[in-house]
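Schema walkthrough. Field components (list of strings):
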Amino acid sequence: MLILGIETATEQVSVAIGGHEGVLGLFEVCRGRRHAETVTPAIQFLCRQADIELAEISVIAVDVGPGLFTGMRVGLSAAKALAQALRIPMIGMSSLDLLAFPLRHTDRTIAAVIDARKGELFYAFYRPVPGGVQRVLEPQCGRVDDLIADLMARGDDVVCVGDGALRHRDEIHAELRCEFAEQFLSRPSAAPLVQLAHARALREEWVNPWEIQPMYLRLPDAQINWSTRAQGSTDNTGGLAR
Amino acid sequence: MTDHLILRPSGEFAGPVDEHTLVLGIETSCDETAAALVLGGYDVASSVVSTQVDIHAQYGGVVPEIASRAHLDMLNPIIARAIVEAGVPDSRIDAIACTIGPGLIGALLVGVSAAKSLALAWDVPFIGVHHHEAHLYAAFLEDPTLEFPLVVLLVSGGHTMLIEMQDHGRYKLLGRTIDDAAGEAFDKVARFLGLGYPGGPAIDREAVHGNPEAIHFPRAMMHEGLDVSFSGLKTSVMNHVRKHPDVSSEDVAASFQAAVVDVLVTKARRAAQQVGAKGLVLAGGVAANSLLREQFLDACVVDGIHGFLPSREMCTDNAAMIAAAGWHRLRSDGPTSLDCGAFPNLKIPGLT
Ligand SMILES: [Zn+2]
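Field assembly_structure (string):
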């Protein structure tokens, strides 16, 4: 069983093919926001170099976020259309799970933290278990103070991973003693995506393309402004006249 | 990001582009998610449009992030329905055409990413299509007898242009708005009058019971050239209502609409006369306006020119026009490279 993994939740585009032999091929590039330009040629290139026909793929795995909205939708849209065209099922995985999984051999609590821009972070906590990691805090959207407060409340030894953790390294470090994972682990990758998806695929825990749900964790600005306005504020809706 | 079409043949497409070529069109540039199958560039086998207008109405305009999310949710089922309604197997599809600009970047990217995936999975060419060029082709879907040179009055929420279509892929910009697009003026005036969103249909409805001659609003640049301007008209509507708070909004809507239509029709006739056009075509969302349709046709009869009004479904955004334009582009330029992105401010290719 071959799985194609597509991941575009941060500034990186990552595509991998794998199966029971592990990851057979991985393509990653992180050069500005060129997700749409890169993802289709990357799949084409990877298949050609790994000598795999798309028709041999039996599951499409995709990072459903949280992440940068426009970028993550490129991967989701490409993945859903591929699954639809090839008539194969899909497996959705959170970007935060993908960040935490490579740190499964630690004995600390893992804080996976993605930069959400606008002064916010997407984060979740995990603890290592035999063969993987287990979520102990569901994905959140908050400011760095919220992250620090949540970490302090747990009181465990912590290792932080992700571009959001690196961005706020000094603020986090000032408040609590923790380790930071290597820079090269700071973006979710399609390699752990296909590894994790393979285990699920063996249990046939997959869905149809139209059932894949993106994990945004944040309302569109207009909806946020709209609800504050409904409560009496005079904020602009941020709407765009067509 | 450079805003030009990337038209580099991928070299994998060898087949002839003819009356048997079946193109799947995809459109996600604004607030309509659409897919369609068109045979041979002219024959619509299916056309499915899902509009988000109700989702955006409460915000008084299209909210880009909300539009992008809705496109991602809707696109797969819309494509599936277009294929089912056409009654063909996936393997019969010869090419995938998709709007790559202009439009909302996040919305465009949902369609482009999906379209390129389909092209890759089915091993067929991908064709990047310019949204406005597709609007020009909407007319050919319903009237293949149209002859060049044609003058097209393209009026939508984002654009107001007079284009001479000299041949397939050869266009000349004759005139355009120097400020607001016609649709934008409709939206702003409708919002000001409290008629809701979208403004075009709202003004159209309100004007039915009003007197178009009740107030004489200015017709800017009426007597010279082919460019238009609507920002002064919008301001004078607002000033008039502020000065006369008891004025009937039906009369205001009717008089405002009459001024817009008067300007558009006058300029379109002048353009057609100038280039010796064989036909005059209306295109874009504002082409659904009842008064514009009526006066446009009347003018064509008076001037003895072949006038063409697309059906209302073909005026508003749809994917059949994308597939049609894609068929012509595939024939003239070949496939678009799979490393193509989306271009929010794309210029019409071949426009001088
Ligand atoms: Zn349009």
